Amino acid sequence: MDYQNEYILVKDLRKIYARKKHHDLLVFDSISFAVEKGEFICIVGGSGCGKSTLLRVMSGLDSDYEGDIIIDGEKVKKPDKRRGFVYQEHRLFPWMTVEKNVRFVINDGNEEENKKKVKEILELVGLKGFESAYPKELSGGMAQRVNIARALVNKPEILFLDEPFGALDALTRIQLQKELLVIRKKQKNTMLLVTHDIEEAVFLADRIIVLGNRPAEILDIVNVNLSETRERSSKEFQEIRKNIYKYFEYKEH
Ligand SMILES: Nc1ncnc2c1ncn2[C@@H]1O[C@H](COP(=O)(O)OP(=O)(O)OP(=O)(O)O)[C@@H](O)[C@H]1O
Ligand SMILES: [Mg+2]
Predict the structure, then answer these.
(1) Cβ contact 208:42 at 8 Å
(2) pLDDT tens, 47-86?
(3) CA-proximal residue: ligand 1, atom 7 (nearest)
(4) Longest Cα separation, the chain
(5) Residue 133 C-alpha to ligand 1 middle, in angstroms?
(6) Which ligand 1 atom lies nearest to the CA of residue 88?
(7) Ligand 1 pocket at CB < 6 A
(8) 194-217 pLDDT, tens per residue?
(9) Fewer CB atoms near the end CB (10 Å): N or C, the chain?
């Protein structure tokens, strides 16, 4: 495989957690894959297989790894404003309004410009009119929209999302999935999203990386060649979903 011109390159990634009271834990032995600019990648895999770890090392939050993670020609060693991160829980400051929570993560620029940026991004995530609300006044879905706005306000080239909709009910989840695709179309970010929900992955992704158990290997990288309006009930959609499910079928010992 020729990796020379890839936007994101993960090559022979090995990650070990050193633990005091237990053996060291080998999460990845040697995994490699590449991502093109603007791609939407979903990562699925069983609990504890290393999905969050993968996002953390790729985004620079954890620089203790072996192998290469190269983004746009540079080795990833620390977090960078060009990369945004959305966590499963919203982590908003309860004493700050929605507007202040988003404003907080912008460190430069003048006041006027930043105000405009925050206003634009809150509109984009559908929170117009809630700028001065406090987190406790928001529904779970709205709080997660603020979370996404916070990750987007610095216009990151890459957005990492770690089970961003995991805590939401099914209907809100479907709504936010649609909204995420609209955002991506407007902002043209490259997206890497971890999910337990195979249907969510098929709905969102251009490609799905299927991870096996620890030390996690890439079991498959599935191309999702579906039309832009992805009908969940369509035969093609269900076919892809079934293909991925087969990796997680329960087997009696
Ligand atoms: N800071 C840490 N120190 C030691 N071990 C860790 C640390 N973080 C994660 N682990 C271990 O590494 C393995 C992978 O964890 P990780 O959180 O990446 O899994 P995951 O696939 O995101 O799981 P889940 O789907 O439950 O969120 C787990 O066995 C976990 O116990
Ligand atoms: Mg996780």
Answers:
(1) yes
(2) 999 999 999 999 999 999 999 999 999 999 999 989 999 9
(3) 17
(4) 64
(5) 34
(6) 27
(7) 17, 19, 25, 27, 45, 47-53
(8) 999 999 999 999 999 999 988 889
(9) C
Contacts of 229 (CB under 8 A, 6+ apart): none
- Provide the pLDDT for residue 6: 86
Q: Is the pTM of this model over 0.85?
A: yes
Element (H, E) at 114: helix 111-124
Backbone angles phi, psi at 224, to 5 degrees: -105, 90
Which CATH number is 8-82+156-248 given?
3.40.50.300
Give Cβ neighbours of residue 164 (< 8 Å, ≥ 6 apart): 86, 87, 88, 144, 147, 148, 176, 180, 193
Query: Average pLDDT, stretch 142-157?
Result: 92
Q: Residue 194 CA: which ligand 1 atom is closest?
A: 22
**Using CA positions, which residue lies closest to atom 29 of ligand 1?**
48
Asked if 94 contacts 134 with a C-beta cutoff of 8 angstroms, the reply is yes
Give the start-to-end residue ranges of the domains of the chain.
Answer: 8-82+156-248, 93-155
- The Cα 152–Cα 159 span in angstroms is 8
Taking CA 14 as the corner, what is the angle to CA 11 and CA 17, rounded to the nearest 5 degrees? Answer: 150
